[in-house]
Amino acid sequence: SLHGALPIWLGGSVAGIDVTPGHISVPVVKRAEDGGGWVLRVCELAGQATAARVTLPFLDRGWAGRLRPFEVVTVFVPDAPDAGGREISLTELDVCPAGAEATGGTAGAAP
After folding, report:
1. Which of 23-53 are b and which e, b meaning 16 or more Cβ less than 10 Å from the residue's Cβ?
2. 30-to-16, 19, 34, 36 alpha-carbon distances in Å
3. Could you tell me which residues are beta bridge partners of residue 66?
């Protein structure tokens, strides 16, 4: 029953995320398990190596990196305003802990 339901205003729009180029998809956007930010799954769909950029306008930050053809990466975008997005493992653990030098991969490279 809708008795007593609050009225809902429909109309307008809110941009949730900005993704470029067009053959990049972000099928998952969720809060991190620890609550300290957002977890994104970023997918390349056209079979082309490319520079990708994902921006969360509500945080005014995001992630930029290179993806290989059909690559899927998991990215953590922290709530902290002075921190940028970084690639993490599927289980939401850091792939490369802070202060350690990455030994491979392309995530986080300049687009």
Report:
1. ebebeeeeeeeeeebbbbebbbeeeeebebe
2. 12, 16, 11, 11
3. 51
Structure-token pair, residue 6: 């609050």
Q: Which two tokens stand for residue 32?
A: 């991190």
Amino acid letter for position 21:
P
Q: Where would I find the beta strands (DSSP E) of 14-108? A: 18-20, 24-31, 37-44, 50-56, 61-67, 72-78, 86-88
The type of residue at 105 is: G
Summarize pLDDT for 22-77 with one digit per residue, the tens.
Answer: 999 999 889 988 888 999 999 999 999 999 999 988 888 899 999 999 999 999 99
